């Protein structure tokens, strides 16, 4: 199996006890590439460090909406400078998250999201979008800029899916699609055009069934892919291979 995990957070402290050994074991468990995604500036630096250290790792750098208020001064030129490394391929994860009351005010989230989209467009790189309970504002901003990129851990309806597809973006699905009550995600998995679907873990979070609730890693994509392939009436290997090709294309590899 040739799994490309299009969205992982191996810098997370959940991996502190055994990070080296776990990452070393991924290739023999079917993982051929990993895009490690920054959420804070610190996390972005760690992503670049991993891409330097491991041949099959690539990096995305960006400020997640949760950290939008603490984005340090000059965060845009600092992010831009990281693209001097040829393994830094995307701006992410960025977006809007209205789910938690303690998240930064919406105006701050929108401003930081828009500035980072502008940076990605200036650099000709795709974005990785996080959108939670913020579909209308996310679509409005994406419609304004029409950036290249992916809706990560897409959790919207089939109607929202059609709007995102019309913008030319990719859709990435993770472990949530395997959960018993995930009716919307299953409908989306069946409806995404073959050339627009990516696979991801968002690890250490969102482990698919039968490991729901445990720490996730990229090898578990095979369980997510098995559920999606069944919904689409495809072979798992075919689906995983095509999603890998889609990820390579999106990232310009
Ligand atoms: Ni993430």
Q: What would CATH call the homologous superfamily? A: Metal-dependent hydrolases
What is the typical, i.e. mean, pLDDT? 97
CATH architecture heading: Alpha-Beta Barrel
Shape: globular
Helix content: 40-55%
Ions and ligands: nickel (II) ion
Largest β-sheet summary: 8 strands, parallel
Strand order of the largest sheet: 1-2-3-4-5-6-7-8
Task: Find the structural class using helix and strand composition.
Answer: alpha/beta
Number of domains: 1
Q: What is the CA–CA distance across the termini?
A: 19 Å
- What portion of the residues fall into strands of 2 or more residues? 15-25%
Number of helices: 9
Question: In CATH, what is the class?
Answer: Alpha Beta
Order of helices and strands: EHEHEHEHEHEHEHEHH
Counting DSSP E segments of at least 2 residues, the number of strands comes to 8
The CATH topology turns out to be: TIM Barrel
Low-confidence segments: none
Q: Over all CA atoms, what is the radius of gyration? A: 17 Å
Write the topology of this structure.
Blueprint: E1 3-8, H1 19-25, E2 31-37, H2 41-53, E3 57-61, H3 75-82, E4 88-97, H4 106-123, E5 127-132, H5 135-145, E6 149-151, H6 158-166, E7 170-173, H7 183-191, E8 197-199, H8 221-232, H9 236-251
Parallel strand pairs: 1-2, 2-3, 3-4, 4-5, 5-6, 6-7, 7-8
The structure holds nickel (II) ion (NI).
